[in-house]
Structure prediction request, 145 residues.
Amino acid sequence: MAVGLKINKKKLDKIDKFLVKKFDSYHDNFFEKKIFYDSEISVNQINKDFLDNLELLEPHGKGNEEPQFLIKDIVIDQVKNLKNKHILIFFKNDLGENLKGISFNTMNTLIGPTTCPLRLSVRTSGFHPEKRSSTLLGDATNLRA
Prediction:
């Protein structure tokens, strides 16, 4: 959201003091970015049963938004640049199963080989008829960025 206003240069100092005083009355966490999600899950919960249950919630759209999950225990092994726009993310669960995901329009973000909490949606890609849990897709948001 943006706003525009016209101010006499002589009154800039007065407005600055007013704004500083006003913002000082708010607690610091008022200005922290809030991340909203539906549920916190472990990377180990992403399996065929989980994906099947998520499919029961479809179709997604207005009034039935796709669930967003917070995953704190994801260890990213590797990232791959896709068309200088998207990131393909490779990671494993505690059972050693290889998983992958795609983060759309995030090429210039701080998702990289590390452990980081992510907010994302989970769904099968449609390319794997066996509904392997290795098809994690969604709009991933690195919460440390």
The chain has one domain: 39-142.
